[in-house]
């Protein structure tokens, strides 16, 4: 009897230890991570060290058609452009990335996000925006080389989720940012669905263009939000419907919806109920990766939030600024 | 079952507090050494301490770099082709900070051959533009990351070659202390430690500059006419006793801690750790590099230094690897001893509870708790003989008492 009980216990512990390694939903580090100024090479490195499966970055174009890793179309929230190029703003007071060449942008220093034209940090608990550390803007090439170099040195493959910011805005300047992106990736031989690159954007028609006109085999994700926010001209009401998802299935692998499209939240941050979007998406073989899970700003109980999306909504991954926290919560549950 | 989980959990905590410290050497191995990105990764991996090196520029700025020359890790030859000395190398002290900021930093190469020193690491030919940083930036990175992550890591600052800087009329230690003062980093409780190979410089920092910061004495193999301090003396019992008045720990080359034979096999431990502990000094040997040890030999090396040599921490290029080894080893030992103990006791408890009615069950469960607590304490004491820290015993005793009280109260929730 004693030996029998002992064996049961040992097996249980063994199983628990193994379960730690069993598949959990993907964890995607939003703009790298929350702990360093967004999208810097340092922020990406730290996301990798925290074992994020994917690092999400945003790209925009410069005046000389270089892909810069930055979230906004303007520079004023994250850089000292106002001090370096005081006369290069537009009439709205903002300095736009597309008005500068790459070598000019290299003169800027990057800091933690502030509300433009104030000294107020958007996320007060994060890295101090007043720090004198000269972070820099990265190009897509540098970001790719960081990814490949780290994969080589750590022997671990993490992936890059590249969001193309506002393709239609870039078209106004007679450039196809999607084409430039695909060419840059091709130069690094990153073309297939099993390569560690995934592309997403709010302009669904650009994803169709990438798939059918540029003939890319890379994995694609459709970002989804509400029409009235004017992120793009795409009709998200349609793409969220069953018919729309059925169409998406023909050229993308997943959807990345605002998390409020998957559940209905109350004022205090607690969850009321689940929508049918995840079920429908899964019906059409689309993975679901909601955004953005921010531990430092979520009003309710973050652990319950993650647990709900994991077990009830059954999403396939989390886009989060704190990948380390989400990974820890997910692995605890197993 | 519940009791089992509880004991397991408490033992995990005990071991977590007791494991050796892990010090990320120049940040981590995975990115070019000493860059802000490398330091950030060390922080994220959970290294307790991040080790960096400082040298002075021509305009007295503290630059984070290991060598006194630039050719191992930067593109200085391409940017400033005519600034080298007669030996072909470009020295940090010949450049201003503004000039140094133009350079890009890459993974270490042999300056004569341009061959990458550690082939498995980040590609030295990569175009990613890493940069040299200053001590101010490194301090701000540490404090900013500690603030943003809520995790408190520390900085171990190695002052490179004070005696070399003196030749240029510069007191590098004084500049380091002044920089730290400006950030209010002055006390032994602040997350800053200073180390250097120049033992007399440590005395100078402690007694002339009156610093209260923690100091570590770096030690290497003594070479007459070459070594700046007499390490043979300082690693003798008398020397260690002498050092114990001034420093908090020794950071010796690992070959001073254990004896290796010609084939690199460990024959035994030296007296260094024993004497250091006798005089209340911690021991943190350098440098544990996984890519130099094939197969499972790195794991065996770490285990030897941990359990047999009984060092207090590891200076390593691979903090994530060592942390994992320290945590896995803990879990395995804890699991096994806990399982044996609690299985035996749980079995007897089950028999008891099924035989007696509710009132009597309560009595028997109290007995059960006491029995398992005693047995558990025996197990822990056996385990502790390898730990060599008396504080561990107090902690275990304290937690045992808590566990005993807790399990008694929680009887109604016991299920199996």
UniProtKB/TrEMBL annotation, chain A:
Listed SUPFAM superfamilies: PLC-like phosphodiesterases (SSF51695)
One matching Pfam family: GDPD
GO biological process entries: glycerol metabolic process; lipid metabolic process
Swiss-Prot/TrEMBL catalytic activity: a sn-glycero-3-phosphodiester + H2O = an alcohol + sn-glycerol 3-phosphate + H(+)
UniProtKB keywords: Glycerol metabolism, Hydrolase, Signal
Signal sequence range: 1-21
Residues annotated as domain GP-PDE: 25-330
GO molecular function terms noted in the UniProt entry: glycerophosphodiester phosphodiesterase activity
UniProt keyword Hydrolase present: yes
EC number: 3.1.4.46
Family as reported in the entry's similarity comment: Belongs to the glycerophosphoryl diester phosphodiesterase family.
Entries under PANTHER family matching the protein: GLYCEROPHOSPHODIESTER PHOSPHODIESTERASE GDPD5-RELATED (PTHR43620:SF7), GLYCEROPHOSPHORYL DIESTER PHOSPHODIESTERASE (PTHR43620)
Protein name per the record: glycerophosphodiester phosphodiesterase
Organism: Adineta steineri
UniProtKB/TrEMBL annotation, chain B:
Reactions mediated catalytically: a sn-glycero-3-phosphodiester + H2O = an alcohol + sn-glycerol 3-phosphate + H(+)
Family matches, as Gene3D superfamilies: Phosphatidylinositol (PI) phosphodiesterase (3.20.20.190)
One of the protein's GO biological processes: lipid metabolic process
All residue ranges annotated as the GP-PDE domain in the record: 20-326
InterPro entries: GP_PDE_dom, PLC-like_Pdiesterase_TIM-brl
Pfam families: GDPD
Taxonomy, superkingdom: Eukaryota
Keyword Membrane: yes
UniProt signal peptide: 1-16
Transmembrane segments: 391-409
Keywords for the protein's UniProt record, in alphabetical order: Glycerol metabolism, Hydrolase, Membrane, Signal, Transmembrane, Transmembrane helix
GO MF term set: glycerophosphodiester phosphodiesterase activity
KW Cell division (keyword) present: no
E.C. number(s) listed in UniProt: 3.1.4.46
Family: Belongs to the glycerophosphoryl diester phosphodiesterase family.
The name this protein goes by in its record: glycerophosphodiester phosphodiesterase
Organism expressing this protein natively: Adineta steineri
Top-level taxonomy: Eukaryota, Metazoa, Spiralia, Gnathifera, Rotifera
